[in-house]
Design goal:
The complex is a heterotrimer of chains A (279), B (570) and C (367).
Chain A (H helix, E strand, L loop, with lengths): L2 H9 L23 E12 L2 E12 L3 E5 L6 H8 L7 E6 L3 E2 L5 H7 L1 E4 L11 H8 L6 H6 L4 H13 L15 H15 L3 E5 L7 H14 L4 E5 L3 H7 L2 E6 L2 E6 L1 H6 L1 H11 L1
Parallel strand pairs in A: 3-8, 3-9, 6-7, 7-8
Antiparallel strand pairs in A: 1-2, 1-4, 4-5, 9-10
Helix pairs in contact in A: 4-7, 6-7
Chain B lengths: L1 H23 L19 H5 L2 H14 L2 H11 L7 H9 L3 E4 L6 E7 L2 E5 L6 E4 L5 E3 L4 H16 L4 H12 L4 H10 L6 H15 L5 H11 L5 H10 L13 H50 L7 H18 L4 H26 L8 H23 L15 E3 L5 E3 H23 L1 H11 L1 H6 L4 H26 L6 H16 L4 H22 L1 H18 L16
Antiparallel strand pairs in B: 1-2, 1-5, 2-3, 3-4, 6-7
Helix pairs in contact in B: 1-5, 3-4, 4-6, 5-6, 6-7, 7-9, 8-9, 9-10, 10-12, 11-12, 12-16, 12-19, 12-20, 12-21, 13-14, 13-15, 13-19, 13-20, 14-19, 16-17, 16-19, 17-19, 20-21, 21-22
Chain C lengths: L2 H10 L2 H23 L10 H27 L6 H20 L12 H5 L15 H25 L4 H20 L11 E2 L3 E2 L2 E2 L3 H27 L1 H11 L1 H6 L4 H27 L1 E2 L6 H14 L5 H20 L1 H18 L3 H13 L1
Antiparallel strand pairs in C: 1-4, 2-3
The chains are: A alpha/beta (279), B mainly alpha (570), C mainly alpha (367).
Amino acid sequence: MKLPKSLAEFTDRSRVFDVVNPAVRSPKLDTSHGTILYLEDITVSFDGFRALNELTLYIHAGELRCIIGANGAGKTTMMDVITGKTRPDSGTAWFGQSIDLLRLSEPDIAQAGIGRKFQKPTVFEQHTVFENLELAMAGDRRAWKMLFARLTPAQRADIDEVLNVIGLTEHRHRQAGALSHGQKQWLEIGMLLMQKPALLLVDEPVAGMTPQETERTAELLLSLAGRHSVVVVEHDMDFVRSIARTVTVLHEGSVLAEGSIEQVQRDPRVVEVYLGEQA
Amino acid sequence: MAYPAVRHRTGWYSLWLLSLLCLLITGGAQAHTTPDEPVVMADDTAVMMDPLQQRREQLASLATGSFADKRRQVNSLQQQSWPGVRAVLAGMLAGALFHDDDDPANVYVLREQDGVLIRINPLDGSEVEIASPQGLKEVRTNNQLRRALRGAVARFDMADESPAVRKAAIAELRRDLDSDAVALMRERLPLEEHSGVRNELEVALALHDLDSTEAATRLAALDVLSGELANDVYNRVQRLLATDADGLPVEPDGRVRAQAQRAIDRIEQRRSIFGGLETLFFGLSFGSVLVLAAIGLAITFGVMGVINMAHGELIMLGAYTSYVMQLLLPDHIGLAIVLAVPAAFLVSGLMGILIERGVVRFLYGRPLETLLATFGISLLLQQLVRSIFSPLNRTVQAPEWMSGLWRINDVFAITWNRFYIIIFMLLVFALLWLVLNRTSLGLKVRAVSQNRAMARAMGVRSDRVDALTFGLGSGVAGIAGVALSLLTNVGPNLGQAYIIDSFMVVVFGGVGNLWGTLVGGMTLGVANKFLEPHVGAVMAKILMLVFIILFIQRRKQGLFPQKGRAGEDH
Amino acid sequence: MGEHSMLSKLLRSERGSLVFLAILFVIGVGMPLANLLLPASSALHPSTYTLGLVGKYMTYALLAISIDLIWGYCGILSLGHTAFFALGGYAMGMYLMRQIGSRGVYGDPILPDFMVFLSWEKLPWYWHGFDMFWFAALMVLVVPGALAFVFGWLAFRSRVAGVYFSIISQALTYALLLAFFRNEMGFGGNNGLTDFKEILGYDLQARSTRIGLFVVSAIALGLGYVLCRWIVTSRFGRIIAAIRDSEGRTRFIGYRVEHYKLWLFVISGMLAGVAGALYVPQVGIINPGEFAPLNAIEAVVWVAVGGRGTLYGAVVGAVLVNYAKTYFTVAWPEAWLYALGTLFVVVTLFLPKGIVGILQRFRRSES
């Protein structure tokens, strides 16, 4: 039966109510060893189905990494683990050398410097474009401060700059819900930029974009690499080819192959399970 | 004031049962002489007379003689074995023995059955319905006589075929253990074959032996009494441990006191075990009520994700259905209740379908709006019932087979209505489980609840399934209403009392899981009943609510969470 | 710069607010003046009874605003907001009870009548201090605020949201209802607190006192409105609206959603407490019935009827529904629950934006 397990978990004395748990203060990001993200032996299962199976993956500081894989390979689940949405059954996840991601909540992780763009564009549709960027802006996020918060000229300039980068300057006072699909994608990227994260997780950024928009997105992501670390999950192989330096192939919840795009494409296992399907 | 009348009737009823048993028995009691009360034999001449004539004369003397005469006749009668003799003695004890005003030799036992007065002639067993006891005079008794009668009836009953009658007789004698009674029981003990009755006899005799001057006898008696649950035993043994005004122990012998203490400890231990069992039973039956009330909600809220605040009113409709059924079938109370179950299912189920088609279906995906709209419906239904049936509470009569109790011992008794509630809940649960897991409707319900679009693509008519699911959940609420109508008053506010509890059960058990509802409801019911004696009913309820609020902290999804990624949201 | 410019900015930004505050000012000043200056025979003379009625409506409106603040702007549907309302009312009631002093039926200088009746020897510890107005006034804010804080913390930390939150909050007020019915609680049990004599030394029955309470209610409503308006137009307000629209997304850009919800809930609970405290001296009684879940959900319907997410819509709804209630319960008592029930259904089905929504649509089609 399921009950004993539930009860056992409930009465487990090592677990305490969250409210009693002291808040974990996250230390500063430390990437002195050149690696910004360590995922080791991460396993996540849903109802016996292993979405991630002892996944081990390292992302270097300043790197632009593409992750490919068929549907169900575990790409989105991996992002969920990194951003704190899903807790793995086992394994470790560290952000730099000093920040244990598994002990942090979603907002803590976001504030520690990990930004995420969702597969479906999720902007705040009732807010204007400007307000969306304002909300995403890096800075103090304590509730009481927000009651009295006013934009400084520097912050305004920041927002204007991002508006310019994402090409939405003339739409700044429009409701985000009224934007086209592509514009929403851009707005979401803009929000990511406002967060000034050290690590960007970008889930299918060019889905639904025109070729020109795709090209601009590629340029933008390439320009971000170096200052930021970027992880891109994408299905569009042409797009991957145009930006990728290192590609990781996920299959059934673990890494199947890793290397340059040519190496990966030559890997017989990859050809069999992934590229082979497309061919 | 229906209650005293009922009790009155059942009193007559049991008396009649006893007399009937007695009439059937031709064995009769054995001749017996008590040492300090020599039996006065009837006149020698009586032997020569026609036995019927002799009995008539005896009865006449019993009816109108002096108390000393009566006493003599009682002593004589208790040794006779003709069919009506026990009825005469028991009737006299109960004040139901009458004689004709004109002819004291005509003695009758009166019995009331279903409002009709019946006159029984004990000599030939003939029964005549009479309009009133006019022209009849009650045979008078006094305390001394009643004591003699009690012994006499007990003597008959101790020889009865049925162990239950024998036990009742012993219990009756035990209330006042005089030497007659003790002698009677001692005589009976070696003859008794039924172990339960033997035990009763031994306990009664042991109680008597505690008054013995011999310490050894008292010790032996304590051995018998150790662990006996009856109140009189407990009190009597407790008295051995008391001290008098000077602080000296009442019981002089230290060994006896130690033994009495052990006996008390053992009694208390067993009492707490049985007390616990009884609380558990109460808890299970209360839990069953909760499960019944919540299980329909487990479908509409759990499976469909619809917050139906009118759920309580659907229960109420079910309760009113059973009230109306009893109005329609006033002579068949039990049948009305049985028929009310499908009727309530239909009434509440159709109302549920109406609610779903009329309101809820426009609000899928907007749970908070659904909540408000269905709350409005609950107000409408309440007021509707007030307009039709008046705001006053109505009572639904429980059929006879549901009243009464099964007394296992002095501490633990199972009341039948609570017992039937548990059985009924299990039946409803099993049926619902079968419907959801073994029928094509159930398959479709589960399919739609998991993936509406996919189910549609597979050709399931999702709107029809929605309506039927909602109807099913509402119908089950109606059935719960029938059960509740037997436990509590039926009124417009009946539903409100259960809606919050029902939601708590579903949330606690885990949304979308029938087993969760079962375990959740039972757990809450039992926990509530175990808390009640310590903190009171209201406080227990408050504590349960607070507990659930805290529990949700820990396990938002309840005891049995729905698994998988479907439960998560972006 | 500073508060003043901000205030004028937020008032300038929306016509509805301006209209509302103007009307409130006119009523708050005009009705007492009319009551005092116009002869009773004048058609424009509002009776003191009418004044009391409108005063009561204003406290309801404040309660409605507090609900709109969390429901309309943050999507938190509390079905237990009358708990805060009633607690504020009880805090005020305790003060008024202590003011009775030896004028009670039993004449005990310290103990309220119901305690003497229960043959209690001394005042329970939690009744101390309520003989002072400032303390009671503080408790009007602190007690509902503290309850909102504890409950909100528990609920929001574990991400109890949507209908779960609604049901749990209903259970909360239900538990309080049961608790306050108990005599042992020391709040007058079933009968609650009543037979008040005076407030701050003024006779509660006097016309001047009633007018004073009316004016104070109007001021409280106005201040409450401005406070809420200020909150929802600040960046805090944009964040809670973001939480309403997409809680998960707000979390992923680094906001501790539970803190925002918690503070908003606490503020809302305190506003409801103030409303309750102003309600009690005007109606002269507070009893456990105020905790009834039905009241809480009725208050939610005021907001739905008026139109949520506008604040002034909540006021409109509260006044209209309560006026209808006053009318029906006198003229046609049987029909009131039918009307209320139908209102629930009709508003949710056909008027998702309430009366304010109709007016807005009307205006848009005109222009």
